Amino acid sequence: ANPYVNALGSVETASSRLNLTQAFNALGTTVAPFFGAVLILSVASGAIDGLSQAQSEAEVVKLPYLILAAMLGLLALIFSKLNLPTIAEHIDDSATGVITHNGKTSALQSMHLVLGAVGIFVYVGAEVSIGSFLVNFLGEEQVAGLQEAEAAKYITYYWGGAMIGRFVGSAIMQKIPAGTMLAFNAFVAAALVLVAMNSTGAVAMWSILAVGLFNSIMFPTIFSLALRDLGPHTSQGSGILCLAIVGGAILPLLQGVMADSMGLQVAFILPVVCYAFILFYGAKGSRM
Fold first, then answer.
1. For 205-261, how does the pLDDT look when each residue is reduced to its tens digit (9 = 90+)?
2. CA separation (Å) from 124 to 166, 194, 243, 283?
3. 4 vs 143: which has the higher pLDDT
4. N or C, which terminus of the chain has less Cβ within 10 Å?
5. If we measure between CA atoms, which residue out of 283, 270, 281, 278 comes closest to residue 193?
6. What angle do CA 164, 146, 162 make, to 5 degrees?
7. Helices (H), 46-109
8. Directed axis angle between helix 218-226 and helix 269-283, to 10°?
9. Residue pair 114/108 in contact by the 8 Å Cβ criterion
10. 3-class state of residue 12 by DSSP
């Protein structure tokens, strides 16, 4: 869907469109846990007596998953009936199987795509690393000293900031170039992490939580900038960018190793390095 939305309109506003659609993803990640909790707890309160623990647990999750399955089925039905336009420039009409576009036979020959893949790798890695260590960070005595259950409630601010930022960013990028916006957000995100690393108490806590707001526009903006002018190689480029999200599995592990060896607060230097690359990509790399 991302390259399709990217192509539905002018190149200049592609990042704005993609941020708007991604904002609804963030809306889902923000509100779904509340709906899930209500549904699961409501079923749990009326659990059938005499069932084993495993049976009771299975009964608790039935209703939420049945509702989810029904909604996905309805969505599939709606899309099967829609007459969506075909993006002609994305179609492979080569008789030889070798597709040439702007003198290139592969998406990997476009430097802005390769750098964009690295950008997606480090962005997802930084976002997941911060999100994964938030509870531990807020539990540090010099930060907030919160218990895990209490600290977990503050994660909503981190992901909620991403939702708000995408809606706002979508509007702003109608007027400001996407690369400029990306570089600015990366700079502020890096600055906020540095503040969190070098401060204590409420300043450290709210600085790290505010990073979510500036993370917001990064994924869809990098994605749209990386796919720019790929033509029939767009599908290949999109696949490469989707593979790059593996950074979300690798970098948090690396940050964990760093936290064990040098301390949790110092280990947040890894996301700072990631944001530095994203700043470069927004300012220059996306135009290479």
1. 999 999 999 998 999 899 989 988 888 888 888 899 999 999 999 999 999 999 999
2. 16, 19, 11, 19
3. 143
4. N
5. 270
6. 10
7. 53-81
8. 40
9. yes
10. helix
As beta bridge partners, residue 104 has 101
Q: Which long-range contacts (CB under 8 A, 24 or more apart) does 101-106 make?
A: 101/230, 101/231, 101/232, 101/233, 102/229, 102/231, 104/233, 106/233, 106/236
Tokens representing 163?
Answer: 């939702």
Which secondary structure element, helix H or strand E, spans residue 134, and what is its range? helix 111-139
CA diameter of the chain: 71
- Position 178 pLDDT exceeds 80: yes
Q: Give me the residue spans of the domains in the chain.
A: 108-287
**pLDDT of res. 15:** 74
Dihedral Cα 269, 270, 271, 274, nearest 10 deg: 120
Task: Report helix, strand or coil for 104.
Answer: strand
